[in-house]
Amino acid sequence: MIPVNSVLQVGQFPEIMQMEIDKRLSTTKLLDPQGAVPDGNFTAILTRSNTTLPQKLLEQIPTVRMVATCGVGYDNLPLDYLRVNGIKASNTPGVLNDAVCELAIGMLFGLLRRIPEAQEFVKSTAWAKAPFTITTTLAGKCVGIAGMGRIGQDLAKRLEPFKVKLAYTGPSQKELPYQYFPDIKSLAKASDVLFLACPANPETEKMVNSEVLQALGPRGYLINISRGNVVDEAALLVALQQKTIAGAALDVFENEPNPNVGFLNIDNVLLTPHIGSATSETRQLMTNLAIDNLEAFYNKKPLLTEVKN
Ligand code: NAP
């Protein structure tokens, strides 16, 4: 049982998520996280991964002992502050794998076969004047995955039937039938397509830099479904403009929802507005898992999916 108005909702939630929240909870809402803290006796916060939770907000509500975020990435939370003050946190892993992997596969073929451009070609009647450009087959290629966690492994399984060789990198080698590379540069060198599926943290910040892009090479494609700051976007833009890589599909950006305008003016990219988990089914599952965690907290039970901070 979650006490009425004990949870402060921070940030705006899409309608489908808000409906789930309002079905199960009576929250007080702070739609702008930088806004004034409403009156109340709050002991937990519910937020989501596109909302950066300010430390100064938590400092103003020392009664808060738990933060539930909707999303598997928790780089939106002030982790040091939570740790030092013994505030628990939960995320929503696993339930979004299907949606994120389905988008990743869509981005892969959209990019290699230039599907968005092909549609524009038909719609603009350019087809009547000349044939569409010749594109690239996936079969026979090496697909690298940086971040072989829940999403990375699910993605690899879905890629197996496409007749590709799979490889990966990450801090630990796993018992998987794919080739392991100890660092991203060597993985990029071996890959025709490089997926990013790792978390955003100090170690992964700008991990894909100009050297990694050079290793990926002029026939290589980059697909980022992790977080924008895992890539040095300035270096990526130069690589795309100079065609030192073949193309990139990006669901996430350093500056959302206003990505670097350079990406908007080149043709070897496929861009989506951070929609990895944005299906109604998945968003309902995420919201309910976040609320299940809040319930566990108020019932003094172990959190279902605690962020080990
Ligand atoms: P996860 O299960 O924690 O997996 C993350 C994996 O990344 C782990 O296998 C980890 O390796 C690996 N990793 C950590 N540091 C790394 C590094 N420096 N280089 C390469 N790999 C590294 O998380 P998940 O559920 O798969 O989610 C992964 C990320 O996807 C999230 O953190 C989030 O940022 C992103 N995401 C994006 C969307 C979207 O809408 N686009 C949606 C959901 C998630 P070890 O196993 O060795 O620790």
Question: What's this model, at a glance?
Answer:
This protein is α/β, with parallel strands linked by helices and 309 residues long. 32% of the residues lie in helices and 16% in strands.
Written description of the protein model:
The chain has 309 residues and is an alpha/beta fold. Helix content is 32%, strand content 16%. It is built from ten helices and twelve strands. Strands 8-7-6-9-10-11-12 form a seven-stranded parallel sheet. A five-stranded parallel sheet has the order 2-1-3-4-5, with helices on one face. The longest helix has 19 residues. The protein is globular. The relative contact order is 0.15. The mean pLDDT is 98. Bound molecules: NADP nicotinamide-adenine-dinucleotide phosphate (NAP). NADP nicotinamide-adenine-dinucleotide phosphate binds next to α6.
Secondary structure: number of strands: 12
Poorly predicted ranges: none
Rounded to the nearest angstrom, the distance between the terminal CA atoms is 26 Å
Report the radius of gyration as a whole number of Å.
Answer: 21 Å
Structural class: alpha/beta
Helix content: 25-40%
Helix and strand sequence: EHEEHEHEHHEHEEHEHEHEEH
Helices, by number, come to 10
Strand sequence of the main sheet, in spatial order? 8-7-6-9-10-11-12
**Average residue-wise pLDDT:** 98
Percentage beta strand: 15-25%
Principal-axis shape:
globular
Major sheet attributes: 7 strands, parallel
Bound molecules: NADP nicotinamide-adenine-dinucleotide phosphate
